[in-house]
Amino acid sequence: MTTRGWERYFSERDKEHDKLRGKQELAGFGNKPALVLIDIYYSVLGLEREEIFESMKTWPGSTGLEGWKAVDVAAELLAVARENQIPVFHVKGMESIIKPWIHRRRGPSTMSAEMRKKGMEIVDEVKPIPGEIVIEKSAPSAFQGTPLSFQLVSLGIDTVIVCGETTSGCIRASVVDGATQRFKMGVVEEGVFDRTEASHWMNLYDLHQKYADVVFAEYAKDYLRKIGAIKAVTA
Amino acid sequence: MYGWETYLSERDKKHDELWGKKELYGFGSKPALVLIDMYYSVVGLKREPIFESMKTWSSSTGLEGWAAVDKTAELLAVARANDIPVIHVKGLQSGINSWGRNTRKRVPLPDDLRKKGAQIVDEVKPLPGELIIEKASASAFPGTSLIFYLNSLGIDTLICCGETTSGCVRATVVDGCTNRYHMGVVAECVYDRTEASHYMNLYDMHQKYADVVGVADAAQYFQEIGALSKEAVQA
């Protein structure tokens, strides 16, 4: 067994518990996947590639260099999905007057309207192309109040592979809802990112134990290529 | 001290200082108490340390689970004394396929034990007139009539107890927040199998979806609401 990134956050008891009850093998994916990219916009990364505390001076929600690194991985996955005719969905926040769900109080933003708008834009590295669906949500989960599951069901999708941010927020909420709807969920370990390291790793652990297979990017790419090859043969 | 501080990395501590939640979001004026998945199979029939208990009940939370059950029983008594609606949530026992994606081998329990395991523990047993919701998902919301009941009573706040912090409690809190209820999580009344998951999920929920409060504060809140409604009746 390779050491997983979450293990360093375990208590002694957790290590023992994981040995007894932790997941030892993957639950597996199906044969009709989609790739879903969640909330990969500038305000969680900044416009420049800077370390997190530097980036936060302008973009308080930034995830810094770790975020950018995951964006590059997501871009690789996206390229493989496109090459193999795997349906791609882009998910982002809905700009509307609906009251936010977030349970915290903050002062009004001092950012200019222009910067705020730029912040809401999906980053160029994973920009949607015509024919790819963009889902706008006003909940952490991409499923709530959106037509995402309508489209997944109508395409006969059985497996949803996700990248994006935050691991502990919209990724987690979307993966839980996907599992609730009985889609086989996959999380690309290097393709998701967070502001808080402990949250990132413990959410990956939770997701892997309960709701999804957390897999490495190479594994996910191989899977998408394999599906593409089968498609090419049966077409 | 909430307990999650131990699990934060050095960077997380700095990030929390800059960006962490500094004041409670606040509750509304019409709460309900929600007890989630407090049945025997997650605590066992006897009060034993987790690894002992797991020999019979593989998903047991051990003594920490029982401690939370006792605290929940105290809060339940305060809710009842103040006419706060109480909702009990448990798993639906039907043939519907599970949402779980863990592949560990399950040791089947004899029928009578399995039935006992699905029973809500005596300490927080439902009374006639209290709603029992049966669910086939991690969250108490999808596929259940919970929201109909909440809206029909004009509930604006849900105070949550039960298990696991990283599973059904978290999923329910995220959905409650998505539906714009004010969500509360009682720190001493929720429990888990994994310590790091427990604390990091409390942290995540407090940052994003809920106010994590102590049991004394939750009890005081119920008493205040109870006193207000008595005044209103007398006026």
Tell me the radius of gyration of chain A. 18 Å
Give the rounded overall mean pLDDT of chain A: 96
Strand order of the largest sheet of chain B: 3-2-1-4-5-6
Query: What is the beta-strand fraction of chain B?
Result: 15-25%
User: What is the H-and-E element order of chain A?
Assistant: HEHHEHEHEHEHEH
Radius of gyration of chain B: 18 Å
In brief, what are we looking at here?
The complex is a heterodimer of chains A (235) and B (235). Helix content of chain A is 40%, strand content 16%.
Notes on the structure:
- The complex is a heterodimer of chains A (235) and B (235).
- Chain A has 235 residues and is α/β, with parallel strands linked by helices.
- Chain A has one domain: Rossmann fold.
- Helices cover 40% and strands 16% of the residues of chain A.
- Chain A has 8 helices and 6 strands; from the N terminus they run αβααβαβαβαβαβα.
- Chain A has helices spanning 12-21, 52-55, 64-83, 113-119, 148-154, 167-180, 197-210, 217-234; strands at residues 33-38, 88-93, 133-137, 159-165, 184-193, 213-215.
- Chain A has a 6-stranded parallel sheet, sandwiched between helices.
- Chain B has 235 residues and is of the alpha/beta class.
- Chain B has one domain (27-94, 103-234): Rossmann fold (3-Layer(aba) Sandwich).
- In chain B, 41% of the residues lie in helices and 16% in strands.
- Chain B is built from 8 helices and 6 strands; from the N terminus they run αβααβαβαβαβαβα.
- Chain B has a 6-stranded parallel sheet, sandwiched between helices.
- In chain B, α3 (62-81) packs parallel to α8.
- The radius of gyration of chain B is 18 Å and the shape is globular.
- At the A-B interface, α1, α6 and α7 of A face α1, α6 and α7 of B.
